[in-house]
C-alpha cells in the first residue's frame, strides 16, 4: 500500500467506507428477517478435519453462556482423547459418555458394534428428552447410521421430538440424506490438504 | 435387519469382519508411514459454519493434553462471545486476545481496521516466538489478509519461523493461496445449509 499517494489512499478509504455502509444495510436487513429463536440441528460431515472439533468448540461456547451440555460419542471410546480429558473437568455442566469401542476396522465385530451403538442411542435419548440440556453432541453418529447400526428413521423421530430450545450437533463422515433433510445447518468439511498424507502423525492437541 | 435369517446374518457379520480386517491392514500401514512429529499449520476456510468453532475445539483438546494456548482474534472483539467467556476461565493456560472491533461493514473504517490488524499481528508474533505455547489460534486472520490489511508474505515468514513443535490454526473465509501452499492441513467448510437462511437468528451457544 506504500506506493499510493496520500490522495489515492484517502480515495481508497472512502470507497471502502461507502461499500461497507451499503453492505451493512443489506446484512442488517437479513439479520432483522432472521428473528426466530429455536433449537437447531447442526450436522458436520465430509472427509475433512474439523467435524468433531467444531462440535467440541460449540460445547465450550455453550458453557460460556452457562448452558448444560450432553455428549455421546458413538464409535469413539477405546482411547482417551484431549476432548474427553478436558470436558471431564466440568462434571456439573457436561455429561460425557464415550460409548464406542473404536473404528469399525478396529473392532471388526458387527454384532458387538450394533449393541454398543444401541446403548449409545439409549443415552442420546435420555439427553433428547431432558430440556435441562441446552446442547447435545452426538459425535460420530453418522458412522453408526452409515453402517445401518441404527435405524435412521428412529433416530430422526427422536431428534425431532426433543425439547423446543435444545440444540443438537451430529458429526461424522457420510451423513445420510434423510438426516440432512431435517437438519437446520449442514457443513461439509472438505479435505483440501492433510498433514497425514505428508507423513505427519496424528498428534495430541490437534487430532485427538 | 430383522428380515434376515440367522444364517444370512452370520454370513453378513463374517463378510464385515473380513472386510474390516483388510481395511485395518491398509490403515495400519498408512499410520506406520506417517511417523513425523512436528508442529503443523492448519487452515479452516470456506463459507460454512465450523471454522472458528473447530479452532476452539482444538483449544480444549490441547488443554486436555496440558498444553498452553495463545489466541488472537482478528476482526472479532466488539462483542463478548461464549468462546471468549469460556476460555477466559483458564487464565494460566489460555492467553486470549480479542483485538478486532467488528466486521468490516460494522467498522466502515479501513485505516483504523489496518491499525487494529497490525496490533493483532504484533500479539500473534509474540506467541509465534514463544515455544511455551503449544497451540496458537489466529481467528479470522484470513479476513485481514483478504482485505490486504496485513502483508501475506510477512505473515507467512513469521509463521514459518515459529518454534518447531508449535501448532497454529488460522481461520476465516477466503484463505489466500499463498497461505494454503504453506499449510499442512486445510479444510474447506462448505455451507450446504444454514439455519439463518430459514429465518433463524444467530443464537448463543451455537453461533457465538
From TrEMBL, chains A, B:
One of the Pfam families matching this protein, by short name: Co_AT_N
UniProtKB keywords: ATP-binding, Cobalamin biosynthesis, Cytoplasm, Nucleotide-binding, Porphyrin biosynthesis, Transferase
InterPro entries named in the record: CblAdoTrfase_CobA (IPR003724), Co_AT_N_dom (IPR025826), P-loop_NTPase (IPR027417)
Residues covered by the Cob(I)alamin adenosyltransferase N-terminal domain: 10-31
UniProt KW Isomerase keyword: no
Pathway membership: Cofactor biosynthesis; adenosylcobalamin biosynthesis; adenosylcobalamin from cob(II)yrinate a,c-diamide: step 2/7
Catalytic reactions of this protein: 2 cob(II)alamin + reduced [electron-transfer flavoprotein] + 2 ATP = 2 adenosylcob(III)alamin + 2 triphosphate + oxidized [electron-transfer flavoprotein] + 3 H(+); 2 cob(II)yrinate a,c diamide + reduced [electron-transfer flavoprotein] + 2 ATP = 2 adenosylcob(III)yrinate a,c-diamide + 2 triphosphate + oxidized [electron-transfer flavoprotein] + 3 H(+)
Catalytic activity, EC: 2.5.1.17
Enzyme class name: transferase
Subcellular location: Cytoplasm
Family: Belongs to the Cob(I)alamin adenosyltransferase family.
Function per UniProt: Required for both de novo synthesis of the corrin ring for the assimilation of exogenous corrinoids. Participates in the adenosylation of a variety of incomplete and complete corrinoids.
Database matches in NCBIfam families: cobA, PRK05986.1
Name of this protein: Corrinoid adenosyltransferase
Organism: Massilia pinisoli
Lineage summary: Bacteria, Pseudomonadati, Pseudomonadota, Betaproteobacteria, Burkholderiales
